[in-house]
Amino acid sequence: MGKKLVFGDVMIGKEELQERVQQLGAQISKDYHGESILAICILKGAVLFMSDLVRAINTECKMDFMAVSSYGGSTKSSGVVRIIKDLDGSIEGENLLIIEDIIDSGLTLSYLKEVLQGRKPKSIRICTLLDKPERRVADIVPDYIGFTIENKFIVGYGLDYDQKYRNLPYISYLEEVEDSEEDDE
Ligand code: IMP
Ligand code: MG
Asked: Which of 69, 77, 104 best tests ligand 1's pocket when mutated (most atoms within 8 Å of CB)?
């Protein structure tokens, strides 16, 4: 008898997401006082969030993309971080805004921040759609947080389980249940 993963309820609906993204965009636009931003999307999870967020920012905003290793088919972090796709251009003198889908252990971002810091940007700030502070291992504090959430495995609006469910327009979560409970459905 194994366990299986099932969908939970909608955790953050489409309208709530869009409303919060607009607020974040307004806050970021205000904080940068018209200075140019280089938004860095951490692929693939942050791609939907980033594409909505940059449209809510009214200061000059360039975009670049970076991919690091993720969990694969597991719901637990391995702690191993690997750059799969690096940025296309130089970041020297730029105001970096790292856009992440979720901060869990914080290991990915603390590693990335260190790597990017070494390339002499003018500033680095972190904007995450979701924050799971309960599971934090690394000492990382995001500058902008969409929603602080409890410790659940999230899918939707860019976040995946085994590369699936990224296209859901809302945030949901997966729960582990006993496989023998199937008549409870
Ligand atoms: P961290 O290094 O533990 O902070 O994990 C960061 C990365 O793991 C995120 O960018 C996500 O890609 C992935 N991740 C962490 N938690 C979740 C989750 O609940 N659902 C989907 N992906 C997650
Ligand atoms: Mg990610």
From this structure: 104
* Global confidence as pTM: 0.92
How far from chain centre, in Å, is Cα 14? 17
Q: What is the DSSP letter of 170?
A: S
Query: Element (H or E) spanning 65, and its range?
Result: strand 61-68
In which residue are the tokens 């993309």 written? 65
- Strand-by-strand arrangement of the 123-131 sheet: 83-85, 61-68, 37-43, 95-103, 123-131, 144-148
CB of 3 within 8 A of CB of 178?
A: yes
Q: Provide CB contacts within 8 A for 13, sequence distance 6+.
A: 170
Give residue-wise pLDDT tens across range 17-27.
999 999 999 99
| Residue of 52, 101, 104, 131 with catalytic role | 104
